[in-house]
Write a structure and sequence with these properties.
- By secondary structure, this protein is an alpha/beta fold.
- About 40% of the residues lie in helices and about 20% in strands.
- The chain has 22 helices and 26 strands.
- The strands form 6 sheets. It has a 9-stranded mixed sheet with strand order 3-2-11-10-12-13-14-15-16, with helices on both faces.
- Strand 13, helix 15 (about 360-370) and strand 14 (about 375-380) form a beta-alpha-beta unit.
- Helix 12 (about 280-295) runs antiparallel to helix 13 and helix 17 (about 475-485) packs across helix 20.
């Protein structure tokens, strides 16, 4: 059993809480720009003092609404400035935040409300109010509901709570904050649940503070300061975006928000972040869109050569790139790479990726164009990142080394097990699940991986996703799926074959990419994915993607057949989580006939 402990350590004091930084920053750096809000197409600065005052006023509103120390408040909203105000205000009033994805179904909301029993609920839109009306009415614990987007400018949740708390003295908020202890629960986050019913993960203020300090001491140490800014667009209901937001705020960084993903590139241009946080699918999308556009414009050969050069240049960094490679890289930097960096706003120095495997080729490509992606690894149960690649300590293809104070070990069956200050203490009201996941402080992740002598972790798959063919061959599907998604025309892929004679795959097409492909290949603009499933040109493209993916595994583990599905997987259909992870049990059930046809035709 191999084990590695980060050499850096720090302590979280008993009286520390995640909300302390709000008032400390207002006192020490009152005029620093804590946030930038998008207003009428421009960005408006919010000072540390203004933010602290707003948090305090909203906290008084929560207190006036009857929130007691330790009570829970459910918050269902997309990523926006008000989300962060409300989150810190809940802590300032002594409460515990229960985030709910704004895309959650009524059934998902019903389970969280019944299990967490929050006393107050904040919804974002009128549509959310309508969609959840029945389950909210049936939730016995809810005393009052607020809506972020009010009917008028002064009737939103922030304004309503501010008015409600006018008679509450400032000292009451100070008393609530002073009463907080680092081991008190700060948030109750329900796992998105690729299988089974979501479990409530209890994270304490100490967990979040350890995560914040770990991030600030590692990957973003040189960028988390009062001169940099970042744009948050991942769901704040997800622990990763929330943890990096806390770390950025604690470090004095300026934070912006957007949830308009289709307009993300133009927003990068106006906000100009110094670093971004995302999931692999977004980085794949940026790459594939650029590649498809280049091919559609007749510049495909140039782009492909530039991409190959970027990967080669990155791969050569450990030993040093030769003269010819350096010259090619410099030429393509002006022709191609500068434009790609421009798509991220022009100032972006690095990116952080989490939530799913990035893939070595994509990691080398982005490092080669001048925007290194530092891949990390973690779960909700580890307060987001447990391990991460850092500046000066990056091994592309790995997920880095543990954050300060944390320890990783690889069990005999290759399961990754974790222990340290970022690891949770148990699931909410679920002793059986807690006992199954925790062993003497060690969290059994269910992920499979390896650990090298320097402490770098490499993920190889998940125990529950391991496919065992009829011939007894063990196959981890994640790597094959990542490589398939690297093709510009592929949106999603799921590898199947458990107890079957060979490995196969279900593939969906990227609608944006396929639109340009149809034009450049003389196909009808009205042709659907179902229409194209038997098209010889398309099959040749997907055959090439499958062949490339199969190079990474043995012949017995390779994909022998595949089916192109008529529509993409989606969160709305229940086939993906809000963080874009595949729900394998749902997909294999929905497409059971297609899977069976693969093996009987």
């Amino acid at each position: 059993m191999r084990e590695f402990t980060s050499p850096i350590r720090f302590t979280v004091e008993e009286g520390d809480s995640a909300v302390d930084a709000v008032f400390a920053r207002a006192e020490n750096e009152p005029n620093s720009v804590a946030f930038r809000r998008e207003v009428d197409g421009g960005w408006s600065d919010v000072s540390a003092t203004t933010f602290a005052d707003e948090v305090s006023r909203v906290a008084k509103g929560f207190i006036a609404a009857g929130l007691a120390q330790g009570d829970r408040v459910a918050l269902m909203s997309s990523t926006r400035y008000e989300w962060t105000v409300l989150d810190y205000a809940i802590w300032a009033s002594g409460g515990v935040t229960v985030p709910i994805y704004e895309t959650s179904s009524a059934g998902q909301v019903e389970w969280i409300l019944s299990d967490a029993e929050p006393v107050l609920l904040v919804l974002e839109t009128e549509q959310h109010v309508r969609d959840t009306a029945d389950v909210v009415a049936a939730a016995k614990s809810i005393r009052q509901t607020f809506r972020i987007e009010g009917d008028t400018a002064d009737s939103g949740a922030v304004e309503t709570l501010t008015a409600l708390g006018q008679m509450v003295d400032d000292d009451v908020v100070h008393e609530r904050v002073s009463a907080l202890r680092s081991q008190d629960p700060a948030t109750l986050i329900y796992t998105s649940g690729t299988t089974g019913r979501p479990k409530g993960v209890q994270l304490t203020h100490a967990n979040l503070l350890a995560e914040s300090r770990g991030i600030r001491e590692t990957t973003l140490k040189s960028l988390l300061n009062d001169r940099s800014r970042t744009l948050m667009f991942l769901p704040l209901a997800h622990v990763l975006a929330r943890a990096v937001t806390i770390a950025a705020f604690d470090a004095g960084t300026t934070i912006g928000h957007t949830h308009d993903i289709p307009k993300l590139v133009p927003t990068f241009g106006t906000f100009q972040p110094d670093f971004v946080l995302s999931v692999p699918r977004v980085f794949e999308k940026i790459y594939n869109t650029a590649k498809q556009k280049a091919h559609a414009d007749g510049k495909g050969k140039i782009f492909d050569a530039a991409a190959d050069t970027a990967v080669a240049w990155s791969e050569a960094q450990d030993d040093g790139a030769g003269l010819v490679l350096r010259i090619k890289h410099a030429v393509f930097d002006k022709l191609v790479y500068a434009k790609l960096r421009g798509a991220l706003g022009g100032r972006c120095q690095l990116a952080i990726s989490g939530g799913a495997p990035l893939g070595a080729r994509l990691g080398h490509f982005y490092r080669g164009i001048g925007v290194p992606i530092y891949e990390g690894y973690g779960l909700t149960e580890t307060s987001a990142a447990f391990a991460v690649n850092t500046i000066g300590h990056q091994r592309v293809g790995s997920v880095g080394r543990p954050l300060p104070g944390n320890t990783v070990r690889i069990a005999e069956d290759d399961e990754i097990q974790l222990r340290g200050p970022v690891v949770f203490s148990g699931y909410w009201r679920n002793d059986d699940a807690s006992a199954e996941s925790l062993d003497d402080g060690w969290f059994r992740t269910g992920d499979l991986g390896s650990l090298d002598e320097d402490g770098y972790i490499t993920i190889t798959g998940r125990k529950k996703e391991l496919i065992v063919t009829a011939g007894g061959k063990n196959v981890s599907p994640a790597g094959l799926e990542d490589l398939l998604r690297a093709h510009s025309l592929v949106s999603q892929a799921i590898v199947v074959g458990d107890q079957k004679p060979f490995i196969a795959a279900l593939i969906t097409l990227d609608e944006d990419a396929i639109s340009g492909w149809k034009t450049s290949h003389g196909k009808s603009a009205n042709a659907t994915s179902a229409d194209l499933a038997g098209d010889a040109d398309l099959i040749a493209e997907i055959d090439a993607a499958v062949a490339e993916a199969n190079k990474s595994v043995s012949h017995a583990e390779g994909i022998k057949k595949y089916r192109i599905l008529p529509k993409d997987f989606s969160e709305e259909s229940g086939e993906m989580t809000p963080t874009m992870k595949l729900k394998r049990n749902v997909i294999t059930k929905s497409y059971a006939d297609e899977i069976e046809e693969i093996y009987t035709t």
